[in-house]
Amino acid sequence: MKKNAQTALIHAPRRAPQYIQTVQPPLFRASTIIFENTDALFNRHWTDAYDYSYGTHGTPTTFTLGDHIAQIEGGLYHLLAPSGLSAINLVNSCLLSQGDEVWVPDNIYGPNMEHLRNLQQRYGIAVKVYNPLEVESFSPSDKAKLLWLEAAGSVTLEFPDLVGLLKKAQAHNILTALDNTWGAGLAFNAFDFGNEHLSVDMTVHALTKYPSGGGDILMGSVVTRDQHLHHQLFRMHAIQGICVSGDDVAQVQRSLASMQLRYEHQAKSTIELLNWLKLQPQFAQVLHPADATSAGHAYWKEICRDGHSAGLVSVIFDNNYKLQDIRNFCDSLKLFKLGFSWGGPVSLVMLYNLKEMRVLEHSHLKEGFLVRFCIGLEHPEDLIQDIQQALKVLA
Ligand SMILES: Cc1ncc(COP(=O)(O)O)c(C=O)c1O
Q1: Pocket of ligand 1 contains residue 294 by CB under 6 Å
Q2: What is the pLDDT of residue 363?
Q3: Which of 27, 55, 318, 335 could join 386 in a cystine, given CB atoms 3.0 to 4.6 angstroms apart?
């Protein structure tokens, strides 16, 4: 058929073959997905994985990454979301209804708590806080629907009694969601805690951190092994129009190959820093699950394979230091950059006031300002030198 110039600009004479083998999978960008014919249109099953009907429901590019993440984490079914927080919100908005009760650890990722408080105000969902180190503090009523878990917990990095909490949740028929960002599917298998067939029901993962590894892409996932639960989440995902960019997915897919190498390298550097930090008199407490003095260390040891411990370490400064001292310290760091997030190549530092963050009393935490270091890919000796020079402002 002879085409006018404008039509010819749209319909290229040749399409690249789909069957050539490349190291990275081909990238599909799609809003519209073209149906072969009306049979294909009328027989589409958009609720099934791998049925291609519209960009929001997935493309070969998104399914490839989703499958890969699910496999790494030990799950079967997956959904991708535009950020870790969006994946968290998908779980909350899908599974919680008016009058339900949800349980969260006191060291939960802060914005998850904010989302739940928002649901509490609007729908009367009861948000209950438990101490992740004390299973007894999780005392669900018959309205309890969902238990959130985080291992290790945000900022103070306590490792929870996962086995104890899961057993109790299972006994009460409560769904469990683990924020698996710290473990990244490498430190432990959240769907198999050994021979007792203990498993979480779903994991949420901020792919923004280790899977992306670049400090430049935002993405999240929800993984399950339960088809019924997956379909529930899938429907909410679809009706909310939650989707991700094919270009971003391809970047994360490309970074996955090096994830374990980066994770282990960052964890090793973090241990080097930890050992040095512990000797510095300016710090009243150093928090890291692999350290024998840290809360939940025994649970970490029991669960994390090969001593995996990620790249985060927090310090509590001696209580004599004022906020301005700690700000001066942070401002004097040169390699560590002041910013949120973790898992990227650049080391980061963030300042927290624990008093504003915790609901329960925690006798294991000393008084004082807390700084969290996220260790990047720089040489640990340089990072130690950087902290050393910044500590001089405290003199
Ligand atoms: C434990 C944890 N979960 C979830 C998230 C949210 O991820 P995102 O930044 O992709 O929204 C973060 C982000 O810092 C996090 O630390």
Answers
A1: no
A2: 85
A3: 335
